[in-house]
Amino acid sequence: MNVLLITGASRGIGAATARLAASRGYAVAVKYRANRQAADRVVVDIEQDGGTAVALGADVTREEEIVRLFEAVERELGPVTALVNNAGIVDQQMRVEEMTLERLERMFATNVFGAILCAREAVRRMSTRHGGRGGAIVNVSSAAARLGSPGEYVDYAASKGAIDTFTIGLAKEVAAEGIRVNGVRPGIIDTESHAAGGEPGRIERIAPTLPLQRAGTVDEVAAAILWLLSDEASYITGTLLDIAGGR
């Protein structure tokens, strides 16, 4: 059975991806940081539909917890064969001149360092160089990486720019070892992250300006992620797929 670990899977894009993956036969590890109740609800939904899932807590800013996470997945479900690096944070909207070092350290520890360390652990298990049977990684970036998010989240955009570069580099590094690495760059998606940034009505403000004139859904992003993980995308690696309504 294919075993998929999704970080930040208790809600939003991660939860939608977990449910869709389970419906397609993956055994899913639903990684959460603090909201165990929400993660458990995702697991219950999957099990009620006949799927296999387990909720596992870990903080991706702590290396030792990431290592323990992968060990727990292997004990509970088997060796990881697919990883979705979805855990990420956004902060209050502000200009760069107002940002503190503490904010930047927190942003990059979660959005960049955590993703790289999770990918490291996945490669150690998937790579044919280490006796694995290959696999696939999808990193969840953002359209902000190419738009810059001026006046709102330049630090978030910069962290996602780092993820884009990491995706391309890692893809080339492990391509001959049976591992494909791709990224998705969602645009304005209907999730709770906009409220977390201090503007609950951000979707209503921006959606009419998009070519498709609406926000995207978490299910649309999940479908793209599952396609990149699937054999249908077997000749695709190092690719960044925009899911941004034409923005």
Features:
247 residues, alpha/beta, Rossmann fold, 7-stranded parallel β-sheet, 9 helices, 45% helix
Please give a structural write-up:
With 247 residues, this protein is of the alpha/beta class. It has one domain: NAD(P)-binding Rossmann-like Domain (Rossmann fold), CATH 3.40.50. The chain contains 9 helices and 7 strands, in the order E-H-E-H-E-H-E-H-E-H-H-E-H-H-H-E. The protein has a 7-stranded parallel β-sheet, with helices on both faces. Helix 1 crosses helix 9 (218-229). The radius of gyration is 17 Å and the shape is globular. The mean pLDDT is 96.
Please provide a brief summary of the model:
It contains 9 helices and 7 strands, in the order E-H-E-H-E-H-E-H-E-H-H-E-H-H-H-E. The protein is of the alpha/beta class.
